[in-house]
Amino acid sequence: MDSIAVVILNWNGRALLEQFLPSVIKHSEGAVIYVADNASTDDSVAFVKEYYPQVKIIQNKGNFGYAKGYNDALLEIEEDIYALVNSDVEVTEGWLNPVLDLFEADNETAIIQPKILDYKDKKMFEYAGAAGGFIDKYGYPFCRGRVFETIEQDNGQYDDTAEIFWASGACFFIRKDVYRELGGFDEDFFAHQEEIDLCWRAWNANYKARFCYKSVIYHVGGATLNAGSPKKTFLNFRNSLWMMAKNLPAGKLFPVLFIRMCFDGIAVVRFLLQGKPAHLWALLQAHFFFYLRLFYFLNKRKSIKSKNYYKKNSIVVTYFLNNGKKFDS
């Protein structure tokens, strides 16, 4: 049986660690538990040392965000499987066993996501991952159980071990050897959609990502960056464009990017009509940074064997024009 490390990235998260770390310790028998700290200025590290001395602490030298924060910390961790877990996650009894069984059953499965339900309403899926993720032709992510802002109740409709395209960074299992082979997360992203980029690169390398319904966790969501934050809007739009520039096949790259720009232009108008000038400005800034570093990201393509991927032609058209509010295989 593979060894497993449960790694919680923390930045000034004393309250979250106090609330959620006990469930991880209680239900993670056989795992080595780490807190990877991004140079917190609160007393979260001291809290863990005092009350949970069995938890190993890795102290990064700065607040490096999700991508570099994990990349730096995981250099020091040698267990076979990494379970990257947000600090606002409550795990359940036996959550690790079905994931390890699934890894053992299929060597081509490199990435696994558990069922992610809403901590505040435990019968509902949670926005950040739900029952496994996909992207459409124009780079918009969606999930089984969550399409844009429409979230489904969990009625067992996705109780399977289906192959998915991306696994949520809220609770992300990956084989150590694959993580290192792919170079980990893209540190330019800082936070948001870096897990989709990594999954896309894994898919290009012929690895599989799967959903494991027998493993259940509850996620608060937005505990470190609220869903209504313009900064989150900026990171999501910018990183999505960067990811497409890196990973789309050459023949599709510029035609697809052009149509994506048109859709983002509609989003600008939508933010304007909704009276959200801060989000409108965040989207415009995202495009500015995309253009500023476009050739840099195009250059990254040299190390990536790009293949096409999309689950649907356009989830935007399906959702807003055809009333496709739920995942449709």
Write the layout of secondary structure elements.
Blueprint: E1 4-10, H1 14-27, E2 32-37, H2 44-51, E3 56-59, H3 65-74, E4 81-85, E5 89-91, H4 97-105, E6 109-118, E7 121-125, E8 133-135, E9 141-143, E10 146-147, E11 150-151, E12 163-164, E13 171-175, H5 176-181, H6 194-204, E14 208-219, H7 230-247, H8 250-273, H9 277-292, H10 294-300, H11 315-320
Parallel strand pairs: 1-2, 1-4, 2-3, 6-14
Antiparallel strand pairs: 4-13, 5-14, 6-7, 6-13, 8-9, 10-11, 12-14
Helix pairs in contact: 1-2, 7-9, 7-10, 8-9
Structure characteristics:
single chain, about 325 residues, Spore Coat Polysaccharide Biosynthesis Protein SpsA, Chain A, 2 domains, two-stranded antiparallel sheet
Compact overview of the structure:
With 329 residues, this protein is an alpha/beta fold. 39% of the residues lie in helices and 21% in strands. The chain is globular.
Task: Describe it.
The protein has 329 residues and is of the alpha/beta class. The protein folds into two domains: 216 residues, Alpha-Beta Complex (Spore Coat Polysaccharide Biosynthesis Protein SpsA, Chain A); 91 residues, no CATH class. Helices cover 39% and strands 21% of the residues. The protein contains eleven helices and 14 strands. Strands 1, 2, 3, 4, 5, 6, 7, 12, 13 and 14 form a ten-stranded mixed sheet that branches. Strands 8-9 form a two-stranded antiparallel ribbon. The mean pLDDT is 94.
